[in-house]
Amino acid sequence: MTRLIGGLDRLVAAILSGGRWLLLPVVALLFLQWPLRDLVRNYSREANDLGQWIFALYVALAFTAATRAHTHLAADTVARMYSERTRARLARAGALLGLMPWALFVILGGANLVLSSLSVLEKFADTSNPGYFLIKFAVWVLAGLILCQAIIDIARPRGSA
Amino acid sequence: MPQAGLVLLLLVGLGIVLTGLPAAIVLIGVASAGAAFGVLTNTIPLALLSALPGRLVNLFENDLLQALPLYVLMGLLLDRLPVAEALYRSSVALLPRGPAAQLTSAMGLGALLGPMNGSVGASVLGLSRVVAPRLETQGVPEPTRAALVAVASTLGVVIPPSLVLILLGDAMLSAHTIAVTTAARSDRVINTQDVFHGALGPAGLFLAACLIVAWLVGRRLPATAMPDDPPSRGQKILALVAIVFLLVLLGGVAAGLFYAVEAAAMGAFVLFAGGVVAGRLRGPALREVLAQAMATTGALFALLIAATTLTLVLRMLGTDRLVADWVTALPGGDLTVTAIVLGAIGLSAFVLDAFEIIFVIVPIVIPPLLIRVADARWVAVLVLLTLQTSFLLPPFGYALMMVRGTLRYQASLGALVRALTPFLLAQWLVLATVLLFPQLTHLGENAADRTRGSGPPVSSDEINRRLQDMLTPIPDDPIDLGPPK
After folding, report:
1. Residues of B in contact with A100 (CB under 8 A)
2. How many CB atoms lie within 10 A of CB B1?
3. Per-residue pLDDT band at B130 (split at 50, 70, 90)
4. In 3-state terms, what secondary structure has residue A42?
5. pLDDT tens, residue by residue, B246-266
6. What does each C-alpha distance from B179 to B183, B194, B363, B463, B484 come to in angstroms?
7. How far apart are CA B314 and CA B307, in angstroms?
8. Quick check: B481 pLDDT over 50?
């Protein structure tokens, strides 16, 4: 069990480590929007669509990156008075009762939405550019990573997540 | 069972304060519990909850939200590159020597960097690193240093094109769309650009007030023998280039030449390129910046996702209808009703951060307010000013909490509140002025910019009837539950 959780932890870490580089193409593509639209007068919609699905994947990964880096906004003025053990239990309860059921629901409830889009490799409706299915797939990426991280934190709590 | 939604909101407040858990996790947990309660009591059909993935897709494809990681990246880069220091030293060198110059320059730096930083947290970190040590060497007392850094860090909230302003603009667009549809008015729906333009006048007023207060506070402090650190030639050039670039960005957005997201992308791109050329973003440093950017973006987006879940559940429970009934039944005219709703937002600021207010409270209370009050631009700017106050309200104001942690503040909270008081009074004075003079949010507005249509006003009975018509039935297609885009 410990090895399984360790493996899951390394897998999530590897996905996030690779995913952080997605920010650079997002910045570059959005930076190019204005010159492409107003100067080149071409390709701005392609750049926009490309930037949109990369952005979707990036923020889908970012939720779990925030959980692992403890950057979620929290008001812990009162909780600072609790013992480490109590805070670890609260964090575990948050993962078990909050994040896990939510992630499971999004994966199951979004199955039709995601699978139907994936099956036809859905394109952007306005431009017919490819890649729209990746925006819907990002919903599964988001929920899948949150679920994996919740399992890791329940099995091996990271303090006040 | 609309009252159940109010219990959920109460649980959110208590959960955030008492558990110390991330607000996003509390929101998701409370929303999940509310949804389970709704399904078990047959208040919410299970099938309707499948609207949630569709709402998440809406978030992912929202053009405006693409600005979020860009601002985060800019904030991180500004903290690593020498731009802030060059601006601060150059500003101090331009003013008469002494603590007043330091305090005024710190405020000016907050105003210059805030809109680019996007987040108050990033501004606190930057100003704490660049400004606070120099204020200390000038003998500025600890509470005054902390108050100044806190206030200067929030200036970016009201000065376009800040992240808070962009997110509020998006929330106002949704709220106004619901209001205009419900009241069957011919208004043009407000957009982020309208909020930008509306905020310019009040933001200018507040900035001027802050600069004056900082100067006066500095004048009362004893001068020290410590010499100011003069800027180098390179720093002067960098400061000049930075100011010109900032003015081009702000001017371009204000003039409508490019969108706020594009301005943010330009800022992020130029800073990133500068960092690479200067050799400050290589290897581990670059990987660290990208990891921090992802974690910070995730924290903000998590709030958005969590609030989307909670507002969906609240809507299914009918809580938005209950709040709409209350707002519709409030006595008085535009001014009274707006002041009461702003007061409610201000009260929620004691436990919720500005981002949480935008994502959770605004979608519930602003649509019914905009049904009664047609001036959406005025309402948006008032909400913005209230949010800025929320960052500074003791004891839980986000900027205050951040400053106390970052500067390792040791003096009493009372001393900090006393140091903060003149700035808060200035803030409230501007808020009251905008409340009493809505035209301040319409400066330079031409006919094409107006959001208000020319149709006759609708009676309160008619508004009530239309609200019931609009809010009572839950659509068959769960994907349509979201506000019109």
Report:
1. none
2. 17
3. confident
4. coil
5. 888 878 877 778 777 788 888
6. 6, 17, 11, 10, 11
7. 10
8. no
Q: What is the 3-state secondary structure (H, E, C) of chain B?
A: CHHHHHHHHHHHHHHHHHHCCCHHHHHHHHHHHHHHHHHHCCCCCHHHHHHHHHHHHHHHCCCHHHHHHHHHHHHHHHHHCCHHHHHHHHHHHHCCCCHHHHHHHHHHHHHHHHHHHCCHHHHHHHHHHHCHHHHHHCCCCHHHHHHHHHHHHHHHHHCCCCHHHHHHHHHHHHHHHHHHHHHCCCCCCCCHHHHHHHHHHHHHHHHHHHHHHHHHHHHCCCCCCCCCCCCCHHHHHHHHHHHHHHHHHHHHHHCCCCCHHHHHHHHHHHHHHHHHHCCCCCCHHHHHHHHHHHHHHHHHHHHHHHHHHHHHHHHHHCHHHHHHHHHHHCCCCHHHHHHHHHHHHHHHCCCCCHHHHHHHHHHHHHHHHHHHCCCHHHHHHHHHHHHHHHHHCCCCCHHHHHHHHHCCCCCCHHHHHHHHHHHHHHHHHHHHHHHHCHHHHHCCCCHHHCCCCCCCCCCHHHHHHHHHHHHCCCCCCHHHHCCCC
Q: Give the DSSP H/E element, type plus range, for residue A155.
A: helix A132-155
Flag if A66 and B26 touch (Cβ within 8 Å): no
Phi (first) and psi of residue A72, to 5 degrees = -60, 140
Contacts with B, A 10-39, CB within 8 Å: 16-17, 19-21, 23-24, 26-28, 30-31, 33-34, 38
What is the C-alpha separation between B446 and B186, in angstroms, rounded? Answer: 17
Looking at residues B362-368, what average pLDDT do you find? 90
List, as ranges, residues 102-141 from A with C-beta within 8 Å of B.
102, 105-106, 109-110, 112-114, 135-136, 138-139
Question: Could A16 and B294 be called an inter-chain contact, meaning their C-beta atoms sit closer than 8 Å?
Answer: yes
Pull the structure tokens for residue B193.
């650009």
Asked whether residue A160 carries a pLDDT value surpassing 70, the answer given is no
Looking up tokens 């030449």 gives B257
Share of chain A above pLDDT 70, in %: 97
Q: Which two tokens stand for residue B358?
A: 């935008």
Which residues are CB-neighbours of B2 under 8 A, at least 6 positions away?
A: B317, B318, B319, B321, B322
Token pair for residue B146?
A: 């902390």
Give the type of residue at B453: G
Does B68 contact A at CB distance below 8 Å?
yes
Burial profile A74-99: b = 16 or more Cβ within 10 angstroms, e = fewer = bbbeebeebeeeebbebbbebbeebb
- pTM of the full structure: 0.82
**A32, A38, A53, A55: best to mutate for the B interface, most B CBs within 10 A:** A55
The mean pLDDT of B185-214, rounded to a whole number, is 89
The two tokens of residue B141 are 């007392």
CB contact under 8 A, A58 and B49: no
Question: What does the pLDDT average to over B352-362?
Answer: 79
